[in-house]
Amino acid sequence: MTQQIVLATASILGALSIILGAFGAHALKKKLTSEQLTSFETGVKYQMYHAIVLLMLGFNFNPNFNNAALFFIIGTILFSFSIYGLVLSDAFGKKMKFLGPITPIGGLCLLVGWVLVLLNCLV
């Protein structure tokens, strides 16, 4: 993975988290229950947190952290976007239950990314 890919992905994820956060706060506020809105916001927060981490990895590019960056990207997509799908599909009456098991897999990928960062720092 190149520095440009890491930075571009971070930028896309960051921009999308702003868009989705605004969408949730304004367009969905009356459509979602408070529990659904909280879940949606969790997806947005985790997406932004990891976009910022990817920016830091990209600006301080080191190929040793490629696997961590990859796990952060995959984890963010699986975790956050499965939450968005679950919340929105539930709010519109067609809950996509198959997304439920994807969220913890995404969380596990995020955790693996953090462990890889730690391991690379210890070597």
Please name the defining characteristics of this protein.
single chain; 123 residues; mainly alpha; elongated
Mind sketching the topology for me?
Layout: H1 3-27, H2 34-59, H3 66-91, H4 102-122
Account of the 3D structure:
Helices cover 80% and strands 0% of the residues. The chain has four helices and no strands. Helix 1 packs antiparallel against helix 2. The longest helix has 26 residues, at 34-59.
Please give a quick description of this structure.
Helices cover about 80% and strands about 0% of the residues.
Structural class call reads mainly alpha
Number of strands: 0
- Share of helical residues: over 70%
Largest sheet: none
| Mean of all residue-level pLDDT scores | 96
- Rg, rounded, reads 15 Å
Shape: elongated
Q: Whole-Å distance between the termini?
A: 20 Å
Which residues sit in consecutive blocks of at least 5 with pLDDT less than 50? none
Strand content: under 5%
Order of helices and strands: HHHH
Helix tally equals 4
